[in-house]
Amino acid sequence: MKLEDFVKEKIKWLGHASFRIDGSKSTVYIDPWKLKTKKAADLICITHSHFDHLSPEDVALIKKESTTIIGPPDCEANFGEAFKKIAPGQTITVNDVVIEAVPSYNTNKDFHPKGNNWVGFIVTVDGFRIYHSGDTDLIPEMTGLKADVALLPIGGTYTMTVNEAVQAARSINAGITVPMHCGDIVGDLKDRQTFKAASGNTVIVLDPIKGE
Q1: pLDDT for 142-190, tens place per residue?
Q2: pTM score over 0.90
Q3: Over the chain, what HEC string results?
Q4: Sequence-ordered list of residues with C-beta below 8 angstroms from that of 24, at least 6 positions apart, any chain
Q5: CATH topology of domain 3-198
Q6: Phi, psi of 19 (to 5 degrees)
């Protein structure tokens, strides 16, 4: 499958920073929140413990007995043995999916301190490396990241602005960039088109799914 087809057909934006990746063997969620879909998860990745990223209620909707949940230690909630801790620089493999944790933090605001060791993820599904940045600013660790797809926040306030995200996309230079973290709490959905127009990278604008 071509990368563009994979993004359009297999990566579902669920709104805000929430995504589902429909792999050939595994269904992967990242930061499930305000879910309108209840497709069962094989793997759930949580970037940090803010309520709009760590939502035990949403996890309960998609968790099955064999589901693995991965996140920083303060995201353990009541997940029990299903939960695996991860920190920046660590890698965990679950079935056919490789999960790499990378730094995610603010540089000019205090919402996401570097010392919290919160994370973004590079999730390899069906041979494609998908980078979900988490709630972050433009940080040096983005340079040289190897990703086929980059999911980047553009809403500002708690994360990068549109212009900062454009710079981040250039630093990462993924095959395809997808804007996120807008249209709920912060940012406007129109910001996606502003980002696409300003970016020198290939951008695919996904619409949040409304239910299945």
Answers
A1: 998 999 999 999 998 889 999 999 999 999 999 999 999 998 888 889 9
A2: yes
A3: CCHHHHHHHHEEEEECCEEEEECCCCEEEECCCCCCCCCCCCEEECCCCCCCCCCHHHHHHHCCCCCEEEECHHHCCCCHHHEEECCCCCEEEECCEEEEEEECCCCCCCCCCHHHCCEEEEEEECCEEEEECCCCCCCHHHCCCCCCEEEEECCCCCCCCHHHHHHHHHHHCCCEEEEECCCECECCCCHHHHHHHHCCCCECCCCCCCCC
A4: 126
A5: Metallo-beta-lactamase; Chain A (3.60.15)
A6: -135, 155
8 Å CB contact between 123 and 11: no
Task: For 119, list phi and psi in degrees, rounded to 5.
Answer: -135, 155
